[in-house]
Amino acid sequence: MKEKPTLRELKQEKKKEDILRAAADVFIEKGYYRTTMEDVAAKLFMTKGSVYYYFADKQDLLFQSQVMLLKRGLLTIKEILNEEISAKEKLKKSLIQHIEHLINERSGFSMLIKPEQDFTVEQESIIFELREEYGKCFDFPIEEGIQTGIFQTNDPKIVRNLLLGAMNSLVQWYSPNGKKSKQEFADHVADYLLRMLVVDTE
Amino acid sequence: MKEKPTLRELKQEKKKEDILRAAADVFIEKGYYRTTMEDVAAKLFMTKGSVYYYFADKQDLLFQSQVMLLKRGLLTIKEILNEEISAKEKLKKSLIQHIEHLINERSGFSMLIKPEQDFTVEQESIIFELREEYGKCFDFPIEEGIQTGIFQTNDPKIVRNLLLGAMNSLVQWYSPNGKKSKQEFADHVADYLLRMLVVDTE
DNA sequence: TAAAATTTTGAATATTGATTCAAAAACAAT
DNA sequence: ATTGTTTTTGAATCAATATTCAAAATTTTA
Questions:
Q1: Residue A13, CB-side half-sphere exposure with 13 Å CA sphere
Q2: Can you list the domains of chain B with their CATH numbers?
Q3: Cross-chain residue pair A91–B187, CB shorter than 8 Å
Q4: Does residue B10 sit at the A interface (CB-CB below 8 Å)?
Q5: Could you read off the pLDDT of B23-39 as tens digits, one per residue?
Q6: Are B74 and A127 in contact (CB under 8 A)?
Q7: Which of A40, A122, B27, B43 could form a disulfide with B22 if both were Cys (CB 3.0 to 4.6 A apart)?
Q8: A-chain residues within 8 Å CB-CB of B77?
């Protein structure tokens, strides 16, 4: 049943890939809704009509580019699982792998709307201030804890961001149907997060 | 210079608030780009024209509703800072507060595009599968580590999600201009995250 | 090289949804 | 009740793009 792929088919495959890469790039940079089909086409010096020859519609482009990114990430991370190393090493390597994937592709599991892309500069700076102020509410106790020695870290800023990032992700995966009550859940999550700062058991 | 607010002005204030709340709700539920001004208006049994009487444009609605949410969150979290408790207590309380705020408002620091909102059901389920597969790559070593006793947690799923959430947030705040090299950075971050699982110092 | 198949083009169409606005309705003050 | 002010309405406008499509260009095949 296997057909030999003709030259043409190979070419077509390549073109599709190119388009997907370009699309992913632009989507990541400008956000899905703000990119036009022309943006994508322009990136490859084609016209939008051409893009439609390869892909059904804009949504298809988003979908397939997401699949591509995910598959690409999966490939490398799966290799790690097969290595002959301790679970801790394995996890650490996977984390590093994922982090580098994120940094390089600038694209995570979910697409973001960055407000700075829609707001005016004044609006943007106001939001920025508020977020800073909010962040400070975590920085203060962290700094205090470092002073008094209950927290151990050389990167308070990084940890702060990790804490906030981990929490904010809740919006996506928290389900109120779990076993735990809201309070219990919040309490446990807070404990796990706190562990990032507290190394010794008291 | 202070003017007594007339009945009318009070009413107007209230209406504005109502609209902002409604807008925030719909934005959170459907995502900014997918909500129309009519959606917002309908939520309050008004017509879109009316909304324009109170707000300049859609963007303004997004901006002001974000400000509202942020300010509301700030209010409660700031109180915690003034309490007479240890830094660790303070941080924990703040974390819990933030977590509950997130759960209740279903809105974090950034707006996300949830694929389930744009994709067809088939597309959605494919993406879902891939993400699951990806997540598993972290679950396996975590489970293994729990078995062998190097990891301590009763909530591997939660921790897994926290790890991924924290990492994915990188996309938003990581700057390549920091002191650390990419590798160093990834390594440190991974170490902090690992702390969530490893309680004892070896 | 000619015919057939594939790919590209860009203008035309379609749709969606934001924004405007003049008129109507509701309201407040005298 | 009358008049002036505020608010609401919904139809009309406007703009931006996604999408289509027939014709032109290109490539492959024989």
A1: 6
A2: 7-105 (1.10.357.10), 115-194 (1.10.357.10)
A3: no
A4: no
A5: 999 999 999 999 999 99
A6: no
A7: B43
A8: 134, 137
